[in-house]
Amino acid sequence: MISSLRKGTLHSWSGLIQPSISHFQKRFFANEPLQKVKEIALNAKRMQRMAPKYDLGATVSVRRSLSQTFSQLEALCARNNVRRQFYAQRFYEKPTARRSRLRSERHRARFRAGIIRLVKMAKELRKWGL
């Protein structure tokens, strides 16, 4: 693609994304076949559509009352462990301490899953009358 560009017309990617194919063809590709130019222009339009203009992150819209909105936001933050991550990033954590913490968290998660599985099995057995 770059080899077919005329000398002195190399622009940034934002310059390559043009709204019309004919303008795109005149500006950048003098000797390319029309099908290839259409394909490149279509890909450029897809790239333009995919690139977000700004990132709002997780948002909560105010619909009913402000207190309900704040409770929704608090629940969203709790689900995503925002407070935990905030406190975890306050200070530097040495790599060995991080590995140890992650190992402990994995063990706790596995243990919790095992207990939940056993409780579920006990409930099933009780339901069957054993």
UniProtKB/TrEMBL annotation:
GO CC field: ribonucleoprotein complex; ribosome
GO molecular function terms noted in the UniProt entry: structural constituent of ribosome
Example GO biological process: translation
Alphabetized UniProt keyword annotations: Ribonucleoprotein, Ribosomal protein
PANTHER family xrefs: 37S RIBOSOMAL PROTEIN MRP21, MITOCHONDRIAL, SMALL RIBOSOMAL SUBUNIT PROTEIN BS21M
Keyword Coiled coil: no
Family (UniProt): Belongs to the bacterial ribosomal protein bS21 family.
Protein name: Ribosomal protein subunit Mrp21
Organism of this sequence: Schizosaccharomyces japonicus (strain yFS275 / FY16936) (Fission yeast)
